[in-house]
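#lab-general

N.A. 3:47 PM
ok so I finally got the sequence cleaned up, no stray characters, all 338 residues accounted for. can someone with queue access submit it? mine expired

B.Y. 3:52 PM
send it over

N.A. 3:53 PM
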Amino acid sequence: MRVLGLETSCDDTGAAILDDGRLIAHVVESQDVHVTYGGVVPEYASRAHITLLPRVLEATLAKAGASLESIDAVAATVGPGLVGSLLVGLEFAKGLAMARGIPFVGVNHVEAHLVSPGLENELPYPFLGMVASGGHTEIYHVERPGSVRRLGSTRDDAAGEAFDKVGKLLGLPYPGGPHVDRLARLGRADAIDFPVAKLERGTLDVSMSGLKTAVKLFVEREPKPISEERVRDIAASAERAIVAALVERLEEALDRHPSRALAISGGCACNTLLRAEAARIAAKRGIPSLVPSPPLCRDNGAMIGYAGWLSLTRGEMTPLTVNAVPNLDSFQASNPAP
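B.Y. 4:20 PM
back already:
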């Protein structure tokens, strides 16, 4: 089965083609317009998707040597995300499915990130997964395909938001996360003792707002201009605190929920220290650490197509009456995880 996946939940426009779950081609285009504002402007994002989506789709088809007539099903993000951006990809996909008379699958953006390591590796069940990005920081136990329990999430800010805020405070270009990662490799992680939030015992939630405030106050007190060496140390120390908060919860989750693999996904999965720490704690337990290659960590159509294909193999399709759900949360279990 050849599946077309479309992703337009935020400011990346992505399309991909998969054959029976195997990635054939994918293309992602980012929207440079947001750099000027230091963050995503929803109205500009949705307008850019309208322009970019046909171009990205055409490039993906050419890369795969395929045509729209060869597509057997189409998958697109339903939510969560920016409602205007979601609607562009969703309505495009529904129109294509209706015109061609082929199945349509609406995909949860977070679920797509969660299973995205399966694009390059076999996912053994049950596995523990963390989705960490600019909008999400959540830990899940995936017992089998389609059976997911959320174990913990952020109480306030996402890990990617914390990385970007640190970058902004240090005067780095937007998005700040990749630049913080680069500078942190050159700095001393023990130079500044930034706090790691301590929540009540037993929770697998995380908190990032206190760390953001601590970095802000520290930078404000530093003599100006801040030296390059000091900037590197601040970046390394802040990165250490962010990753430590995530790793603490992952270790607790692995201790309480036996898993055959640890899967890390989302934009923060590109971070060098997080990838290394995930490999370390997984190896300690004799299980693999599965992290997508960097291009597949960011928002992309490949993960949407893969999640859609998994749904189709379970006999699941979505009616064309479905609408965008910007606050979609299909993982909120009726039986909360212990």
